[in-house]
Amino acid sequence: MAVTGSLLAGVLLTACGSSAENAEPKAVTATATVTATTTVTATPKPSDPPPYPRGFPKRQRVSELPSPINTAFEGQQFAVAIAPGVWTEHAPGTTVREAADFGTFTGYCSSIKAFEKRYTPEPRGNSCW
């Protein structure tokens, strides 16, 4: 156990760049096999998926939204397209990104479900058709 612990500590210190005083730590998964000869394999953390599909979020005129989706935004001039088939309200005083990050979803049920599965850790409230 002491050998394994010191090996993992050495891997983590090396991965964190312990030789540089101001180095930022890096997330690393280390696997150590203790035998007559010890091998250590470091696996970098996979990168997070982008928060939105390419080209989104973007501001879109409510008049350009398909029916019946546009009825959910009645009285508003703009909505925010988060992904194909997924929109949210563009409240006055908010940026497009703020609306996308915190708004509830309106759109096609299958599009919202697909977006939530890939891009959001938890489902948000929604209205869908």
Explain what the structure shows.
There is one protein chain. This protein is of the alpha+beta class and 129 residues long. The chain folds into two domains: 2-44, no CATH class; 58-128, no CATH class. It has three helices and seven strands. It has helices at residues 2-15, 96-102, 109-119; strands spanning 28-33, 39-44, 58-61, 78-83, 86-89, 105-107, 126-128. It has a five-stranded mixed beta sheet with strand order 3-4-5-6-7. Strands 1-2 form a two-stranded antiparallel ribbon. Strand 1 and strand 2 (39-44) form a beta hairpin. The longest helix has 14 residues, at 2-15. It is elongated and about 75 Å long. 16% of the residues are buried.
Short description:
The protein has 129 residues and is an alpha+beta fold. The protein has helices at residues 2-15, 96-102, 109-119; strands at 28-33, 39-44, 58-61, 78-83, 86-89, 105-107, 126-128.
What is the fold's blueprint, element by element?
Blueprint: H1 2-15, E1 28-33, E2 39-44, E3 58-61, E4 78-83, E5 86-89, H2 96-102, E6 105-107, H3 109-119, E7 126-128
Number of helices: 3
Shape: elongated
> Approximately what portion of the residues adopt beta-strand conformation?
15-25%
Percent range of helical residues:
10-25%
The counted number of beta strands is 7
The unreliable regions are 1-21
The spatial strand order of the largest sheet comes to 3-4-5-6-7
Query: Rounded to an integer, what's the Rg over CA atoms?
Result: 23 Å
SSE class? alpha+beta
Tell me about the biggest sheet? 5 strands, mixed
pLDDT averaged residue by residue: 78
Give the N-to-C terminal Cα separation. Answer: 57 Å
Element-level helix/strand string? HEEEEEHEHE
Number of domains: 2
